[in-house]
Amino acid sequence: MDTDSIKAALKTVKFPGFSRDIISFGLVRNVEFNNGEALIGIEITTGDTKIPEQIAADIKATVGALEGVQDVKVQMEISTPQNQPSPNGAANGNAPASSAAMQNVKFAIAVASGKGGVGKSTVTVNLACALQRLLEADGKPGVGIMDCDIYGPSIPLMLGAAGRPEIENDLILPLQNFGVSTMSMGFLVDEDTPVVWRGPMIMKTIQQFAQNVNWGELEILVVDLPPGTGDAQLSLVQTIPLDGAVIVTTPQPAASNVARRGARMFEKVNVPYLGVVENMSYLEADDGTRQHLFGEGGGASTAESLETPLLGEIPIDTAIREGCDNGIPIVVSDPESVAAKEFFKVARRIIDQLHT
Fold first, then answer.
1. Mean pLDDT of the chain
2. Cα–Cα–Cα angle for 345, 286, 293, rounded to 5 degrees
3. Would you say residue 55 has pLDDT above 80?
4. Which residues have CB under 8 Å from 176's CB, separation 6+?
5. Please, are residues 125 and 161 in contact by the beta-carbon 8 Å criterion?
6. What residues contact 125, with CB distance under 8 A and at least 6 apart?
7. 105-354 has the same fold as 3-79
8. Is the pLDDT of residue 210 over 90?
9. CATH: 3.40.190.10, 3.40.50.300, 3.40.50.1820, 3.40.50.2000. Which one for 105-354?
């Protein structure tokens, strides 16, 4: 018996009244196992005292049934929520914050990087469009992008989406382009207006994107995170039950080393890795030879260190940059290009992982 086996068992413990488990909701903070005793730490925000009691009882019954477990102790840290309006107007303090507005979102994944300048948003947009096309061909619901890069919201430009969102039944309607639903701070502020906010405002905005946007029926919501491990990242994992994280890096150690450190945050909050995408991997000449302008191997070493797959290596291609500048991602404008095919490969691997 080990902690991994206990975590696997905890994935069968559902949040009362919901089909999602306490691991995917991010409630499990630590798991320890020593000399037959399992210690599980839970952090929950709720106004209903019966919910923590039910969760604790379910944990003890589930983990206690495992071979080799003699005793189960549950440490419960409970916070009382501020009243948040749900879409039907009632206070929704008894469920994870994102449950009401995102109840028809099947999977939520984060795209993250340890540092800026690695093309994370470029990967996000092309990945979302690739996912949309593959899922549409499979007869699945659509894809959305939640742009949580509050200080530098570039998703609207790259996706070619513009305008002001409308409000219907007290919920914001995301804008759409290429079949992808999108919500971004870029839709809410003027182009030249800086976002000068401290942590609490960032947290509130991310909560609003989760709780007060009508995402509709989505197979996958792709969340574009800002670089690093600051307020936005922590707010997200505490607000949305993430099904996995995609780590973006470039080949050189200056990026890959930081990517590894930044990615460790997801381990702390029990969000699994889906894999690593190496961007700007190489420049391919007309004769097929490759020049590794930023070195090579950073994506592979990052994936090996995190014990997760290397999902793909995106080449340097001016068409990628031009597509994002013009609001037509390369997977839409030139789906048969080498770069687009690599994005489709990454998208297919993510879909396969989420459905296993």
1. 84
2. 70
3. yes
4. 161, 182
5. no
6. 145, 155, 158, 159, 324, 329
7. no
8. no
9. 3.40.50.300
Looking at residue 252, its amino acid is Q
For 85-110, what is each residue's pLDDT tens digit? 333 333 334 444 444 567 789 999 99
List, for residues 290-347, the tens digit of each pLDDT value: 898 888 888 999 999 999 999 999 999 999 999 999 999 999 999 999 999 999 999 9
Q: Are 208 and 98 spatial neighbours (Cβ–Cβ below 8 Å)? A: no
Tokens encoding 109: 């994944």
Separation CA 195–CA 193 (nearest Å): 7
Its CATH class, for the domain covering 3-79, is: alpha beta
DSSP line for 177-231 = ETTEEEEEGGGTS-TT------HHHHHHHHHHHHHSB---SEEEEEEEPPSSSSH
Angle at which helices 120-137 and 318-325 cross, to 10°: 80
The SS3 assignment for 145 reads strand
Nearby residues of 145 by Cβ (< 8 Å), 6 or more positions away: 124, 125, 128, 155, 159, 180, 181, 182, 183, 184, 221, 222, 223, 224
Residue 49 has pLDDT above 70, yes or no: yes
Domains in the chain: boundaries? 3-79, 105-354
